[in-house]
């Protein structure tokens, strides 16, 4: 088969795969979540197997402990978080109005100096409309998350079907890997295996490491803000930790929310506002200098901009399923792009030199190297 036919075949396969995802996006969530869970827990199952426990026993033990821990966390945190979400939604308009009033009070001399009293009234009206519209939109969005039967059905399916899917996939994981390996085209088997190893290292290094970072940061932010007595501290801290899966987005979102709430709650006590800011500054220092280098590492190859683009693109196309698939597909695309770049840099398209024939270098290159050695 020629190169053109091979490229055409794989492009067609990719198009069919993407089309299937798009058509089945409404029912794929528990299956993709189960696949992700099995992938995350497979190294632990392999380790238990090496200790003498059978694959079935290791799978039952791991998933049992995982489900038990998830249920305990859900029962402990769900009432607290749900209460804070309701209170936050109810108080959001008042908090926004208070921030608007403080901003206009302290910015009044500057606005009047630049445009006069009429400019101040125009700015106040514009900011008021913007804040009210934004608060209304956010309130409606948060309430819509829990309204409608489809959302409830999706949550139930996620909680019930996902562990079952993960159980069967985790039992047969090694057999599935062997089966996929047996399907690889023989002439390119070594190259494809090398690419799969690199893709697996990128995905595992980011997902497992970044998940640990998110859990640690979320716990730290929630405890730190709660100790300061900040309203909705647990909600803001956990949200900031979970959103830290997207580099810089979680910390920036949590910083803006917490400082805004702190200004409304504590002002004019600037020390408490500074302490709230200090929690996120310290968290960012620990993440950048300790957690990320140790848990994620520098060899993952997922640039923050590329990751944010992948999350937004796949999320808009496939919803929550797209968010689950964004990181693996972005990591795979990055590995393939680097492989293609290495091949390009090693080819005559880049160097402009004629390719070697039968293992012999062109005479021009040999003469130049000989002259350089002389």
From TrEMBL:
Q: Which InterPro entries match?
A: AI-2E-like
The transmembrane segments are: 7-24, 30-48, 60-82, 151-171, 212-236, 242-263, 270-286, 306-337
Say yes or no: keyword Membrane present. yes
Topology with respect to the bilayer: Multi-pass membrane protein
Kindly list the places in or outside the cell where this protein is found, as annotated in its UniProt entry: Membrane
- Provide the GO biological process annotations: transmembrane transport
Gene Ontology, cellular component aspect:
membrane
Keywords for this protein: Membrane, Transmembrane, Transmembrane helix
Just give the chief location class.
membrane
Q: What family does this chain come from, according to its entry?
A: Belongs to the autoinducer-2 exporter (AI-2E) (TC 2.A.86) family.
Name-wise, this protein is AI-2E family transporter
Organism of derivation: Salinarimonas soli
């Amino acid at each position: 088969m020629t190169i053109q036919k091979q490229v055409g075949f794989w492009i067609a396969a990719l198009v069919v795969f993407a089309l299937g995802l798009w058509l089945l996006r409404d029912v794929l969530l528990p299956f993709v979540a189960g696949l992700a869970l099995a992938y995350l827990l497979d190294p632990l199952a392999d380790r238990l197997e090496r200790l003498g426990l059978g694959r079935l026993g290791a799978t039952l033990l791991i998933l049992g402990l995982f489900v038990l821990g998830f249920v305990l966390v859900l029962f402990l945190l769900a009432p607290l978080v749900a209460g804070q979400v309701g209170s936050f939604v109810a108080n959001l308009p008042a908090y926004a109005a208070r921030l608007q009033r403080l901003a206009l009070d302290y910015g009044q001399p500057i606005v009047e100096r630049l445009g006069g009293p009429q400019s101040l009234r125009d700015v106040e009206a514009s900011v008021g409309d913007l804040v009210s519209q934004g608060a209304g939109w956010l309130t409606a969005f948060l309430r819509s998350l829990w309204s409608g039967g489809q959302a409830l059905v999706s949550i139930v399916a996620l909680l019930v079907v996902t562990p079952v899917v993960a159980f069967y996939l985790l039992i047969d994981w090694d057999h599935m890997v062997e089966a996929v390996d047996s399907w690889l085209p023989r002439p390119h088997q070594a190259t494809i295996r090398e690419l799969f190893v690199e893709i697996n290292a990128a995905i595992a290094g980011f997902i497992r490491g970044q998940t640990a970072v998110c859990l640690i940061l979320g716990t730290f932010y929630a405890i730190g803000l709660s100790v300061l007595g900040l309203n909705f501290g647990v909600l803001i801290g956990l949200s900031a930790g979970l959103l830290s899966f997207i580099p810089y987005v979680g910390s920036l979102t949590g910083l803006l929310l917490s400082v805004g709430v702190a200004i409304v709650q504590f002002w004019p006590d600037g020390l408490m506002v500074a302490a709230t800011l200090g929690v996120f500054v310290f968290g960012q220092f620990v993440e950048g200098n300790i957690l990320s280098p140790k848990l994620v590492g520098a060899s993952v190859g997922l640039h923050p901009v590329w990751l944010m683009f992948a999350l937004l693109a796949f999320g808009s196309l496939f919803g929550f399923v797209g968010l689950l698939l964004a990181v693996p597909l972005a990591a795979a695309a990055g590995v393939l792009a680097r492989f293609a770049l290495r091949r390009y840099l090693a080819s005559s398209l880049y160097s402009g030199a004629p390719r070697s024939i039968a293992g012999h270098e062109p005479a021009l290159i040999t003469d130049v190297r000989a002259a350089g050695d002389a």
